[in-house]
Amino acid sequence: MKGRWPMSTFDYIANSLNVKGNVIKKCIHSEQQIEFIMELNRAVVQCPNCHAKTDRIKDYRWQRIAIESILHQQAFVRLHKRRYVCPCCGRTFFETVPFLQRYQRKSKDLQMQIMVSCFQKRSFTDIAADFHTSTTTVIRYFDRLHFPHPQHLPQVLAMDEFRGNAHGQKYQVSITDVEHNELIDILPRRDADWIIRYFLRYPKAERRRVRYVVMDMSALFRSVYKTMFPNATLIADRFHVQRLVLWAMERVRKDIQNTFPKTSPYLKHNKRILQKRGTTLSGEELVKLRCILSQSDELRRAYILKEAFYKVLRQKTELAAKRELNKWLAMVMGYNLDAFKGILRSFKDWEAAIIQAIIQPYSNGFTEGCNNLIKTVKRVAFGMRDFNRFRNRILYVNWQKRNSANALPSS
């Protein structure tokens, strides 16, 4: 049906499309969509061929242009598009449409709205459905964006791997600033030589500015650290250090569980009590703990080692941390549990980085949070094989969490 919309509404629509004057002639409004009939004002224009001025009209063509939705309905402009003819060279050309790029059928604002929607944790298919377009169109618009590589390195830099299955590689690497909680880049492969080549983009003076490098206890990342960051102090991730101790205790529990079938279900169902800090247990949990530890002297010793390690983690100075860590390692040697022997080797190899993990406030906690965000983006997208698209999507979704989606990051 033909809508009797007030002229102020037509003016508002015209202004939103960056055109002036009485250009919207009428509105056709149905249950499914809204269509505005538009004709731009005649103007003196310049010939793109010989640059002569003219306002001579050859003919008109109708063009249908999708614009941003109005009142939650799909909206279009049906433009009576003017074609000019140059009196000097005879060249014909269409008038310029302020809200439309050349060869496009969607307005600039609608294209921008589609791109900004890609910053959300949603699949391209869902976004396409919202805008009544195809998935390939949404992907094509998004691929116009490129999230810039950082120009500077953070003073506290963290590296971690995640399983992305992109670019023909199983694992990718996230680089974060854990001082300011910012995801700064995604690398396409977990390969020491490739990561080193990436950091070689930065001058040596820039790499010397990095004060701390945080990582899990990875020999690969440590080789990158030694090569690239001569002035930085290495920090092992506190969570991974603590997890090694918990895993060692868990191995003892499983061995005892397999040795005594009758008590196996009780040990299995109450394993969370063993993993919790002793100071956080309720009265009922303490009763269960005493019952569990009475099953095996080995399990009791493993639990004592786990609890003693929390004292190491409470130290505030390098001297105190080193003293308590050495005391704890001496306990491990004295208790002579097979499950803890691997810890002796690892802790001696990473001693300096572990001490820094104890006394410094930095960890890979934020980086692990970014990896969880990456898993969510990957899941809602049903996987993403193109690495550049994968990288851009992750960085833009993360950027949108930290900023308003009304503007794009500068590239």
UniProtKB/TrEMBL annotation:
InterPro entries reported for this sequence: Transpos_ISL3, Transposase_DDE, Transposase_HTH, Transposase_Znf
Pfam families (UniProt xref): DDE_Tnp_ISL3, HTH_Tnp_ISL3, Zn_ribbon_ISL3
Record domain Transposase IS204/IS1001/IS1096/IS1165 zinc-finger: where: 44-89
Highest taxon listed in the record's lineage: Bacteria
Domain Transposase IS204/IS1001/IS1096/IS1165 helix-turn-helix, first and last residues per copy: 95-146
Domain Transposase IS204/IS1001/IS1096/IS1165 DDE residues, every copy: 157-394
PANTHER family: TRANSPOSASE FOR INSERTION SEQUENCE ELEMENT IS1557
Classification via NCBIfam families: transpos_ISL3
Protein's name according to its UniProt entry: Transposase
Annotated source species: Acidaminococcus intestini (strain RyC-MR95)
